[in-house]
Amino acid sequence: MGRQPCCDKLGVKRGPWTAEEDKKLINFLLTNGQCCWRAVPKLAGLRRCGKSCRLRWTNYLRPDLKRGLLSEAEEQLVIDLHARLGNRWSKIAARLPGRTDNEIKNHWNTHIKKKLLKMGIDPVTHEPLNKELAKAEEISSHANNSADNHITENDGIANSSEDNSSTQTENCSSTDDSNLIDSICNDDSLLTSLWMDEPAPLVDASWNGIPAEETCNGTSLPSWEENCAWLLDCQDFGIHDFGFDCINDIELNSLEMGNKTVA
DNA sequence: AATGCCTCCAACCGCAAGTAA
DNA sequence: TTTACTTGCGGTTGGAGGCAT
What we know:
GO terms for molecular function: transcription cis-regulatory region binding. It is found in: Nucleus. By secondary structure, this protein is mainly alpha-helical. Helices cover 52% and strands 0% of the residues.
């Protein structure tokens, strides 16, 4: 039996979120906290499916998100974790406070992958492409049907010869970040905990955007007071662009929510 | 200035896992 | 145990903006 769609599609809006929708969602979640996502759009007065609301919140609106490009240290950490965990983006994201799996996945596909190829490293196996190529040739000498692999790997080689000067990101990596990476990469117990799905302690304790008690599984969010503080400090977010000056009216809205009945 | 191509990333889709009845 | 439902995850897509011609 197939699964039902997460929403009935009829009357459900799709595509980019408007400022007004963001506002409604934030207001609702700030007032009520996260509850059943399926009920959120209805209760928040949104014509969206719950899945869309959850995605919008976790990937964009969540107050504990870091914004902007990944630092070199974060990037290096992603590479190392990917080498060990593969495309387990959520697991990788759990090691980078304030970063979402979607963000890391996108960054991997758009930046890191290319960077590794330029460096002559296979982004899938994390082995040097030369080695992969030699291996493939060895295999092809025994079997004749490995043409596809050659094409891919030759492409990689071609790219690597293009320009070996790795692009320097504008973000500098601090010594602390380097130490952080070392500690993570050398910490087998930490990686074991990732495999075992156990919540390991956040390594990046120096990052103060998330309270220490927050777990990797996102079982708890920063306090709503902190959320509000973030919203008031949302210059990066451009929140005023969509009339978020009203965030000071949260209390007012909460009063309204109190009176609001389920539609 | 106009056009086409490329890049990036927000959002969607479908599947799997977890869970309640 | 089975079924129905919710949530989370990873792959993919599409559109906006930037860049080259």
